Amino acid sequence: MRHLAASIAVLIFAGVALADEPVKLIVNGGTIKSDPAPIIRDGHVYVPLRVAGEAVGAEVTYDAELKIVKLCARPPNYTLGNLGGACMIIDQSEGLTVKGRLFLGVRKLAESLGSKVKWDNQAKTVTITSAAPAL
Description:
By secondary structure, the chain is an alpha+beta fold.
């Protein structure tokens, strides 16, 4: 009976350790440090919007009154991926707010910006590769 209880305890704490495993973010070959770090929620990876947006070359601004985030290409004559324009608007309700930071699903963010995204489940690493900016 003692062995059964010990085995159950090991399984419970192993699950907690796995849940707390950090997610690594790599953008265009460079590791991006972020506080808070990217998270996994319901099987999806979410990244802090400002950190990821700036890492792919966008200017990120937040309008608290409208509760929207605006990502704009730098320099302004570039376009952001397949959006066909210089800016994109993200409503706060489209993401998760954690510790006062807006997180967005990494695939949605990357593909909206015309970037490629790859997830390595074993290494808990998400890699974003930006497309060359369009003129």
